[in-house]
Amino acid sequence: MWKRKKKSSPTSKKQTLEVRDLSIHDVRKAVHAFADHKPGDVPLSVLINQDLTLDYDLLAPYLDGLPEKNYYMSRETYELFEEDDLDLAQDLDLVQYAVDQYMKLTQELPIIDHDPYKRINYYKLEKHDLLQRRPNRDFYLTDEEFMITYKKPK
Q1: Considering the entire predicted model, what is its pTM?
Q2: Is residue 81 a contact partner of residue 74, using CB atoms and an 8 Å limit?
Q3: pLDDT at position 13, please?
Q4: N or C end: fewer C-beta atoms under 10 angstroms in the chain?
Q5: How many helices (H) and strands (E) are present in the chain, helices listed first?
Q6: How do the domains of the chain map onto residue ranges?
Q7: Local structure of 104: helix, strand or coil
Q8: pLDDT(12) > 50
Q9: How far apart are CA 104 and CA 89, in angstroms?
Q10: What is the dihedral of CA 82, 44, 76, 27, to 10 degrees?
Q11: What is the pLDDT of residues 31-71, one digit of tens each?
Q12: b/e sequence 83-110, b meaning 16+ C-beta within 10 Å
């Protein structure tokens, strides 16, 4: 006699969104819009899946479709990367986490002594067992709250 309404499954929303060629700029705008509208106690990291892909169900109200390409976001720095740069996002998370832990332990910066670019010293991180593997690229400490970057300062 009384019939329950079927709840729409999360996959049915995905099917209604059209797969489109969205640029990294479009996705970045959607992430910023999500950040502006989310409640203050909700961290931005809810957008990031375990494999560093974005949760497009949460971004759907801010995107006009699903991107054809995968985009990745660093959990530690919230930087957005294209598919080709997944290894860079993973390295960034690995080193940023190690830098944060090193600074908690030692209250020192893990940079190469007398380096004008503030290049991260992997040896210092490894000495404290904070780095599981050594990345094949250099990272540099920025002036912004001890965050790291892969871009060499000028």
Answers
A1: 0.79
A2: yes
A3: 46
A4: N
A5: 5, 6
A6: 10-73, 87-149
A7: helix
A8: no
A9: 23
A10: 10
A11: 999 999 888 888 899 999 999 999 988 998 898 788 889 99
A12: eebbebbbbbbbbbebbbbbeeeeeebb
Structure tokens at 63: 């995107």
- The DSSP H or E segment spanning 140 is strand 140-141
Q: Measure the CA–CA gap between 97 and 49, rounded to whole angstroms.
A: 17
Q: How many other C-beta atoms can be found within 10 angstroms of the C-beta atom of residue 129?
A: 9
Residue range 90-116, pLDDT digits in tens: 999 999 999 999 999 999 999 999 999
User: The tokens of 104 are what?
Assistant: 């908690």
- Longest Cα–Cα distance of the chain, Å, equals 79
State the number of CA atoms in the 13 A half-sphere of 84 facing the CB: 1
* Structure tokens given for 55: 């949760």
* AA identity, residue 133: R
Backbone CA torsion sign across 77, 83, 85, 89:
positive
Tell whether the model's pLDDT for residue 8 goes beyond 70: no
Per the prediction, the chain carries an average pLDDT of 88
Q: How far apart are CA 89 and CA 85, in angstroms?
A: 6
Segment 130-144 shows an average pLDDT of 93
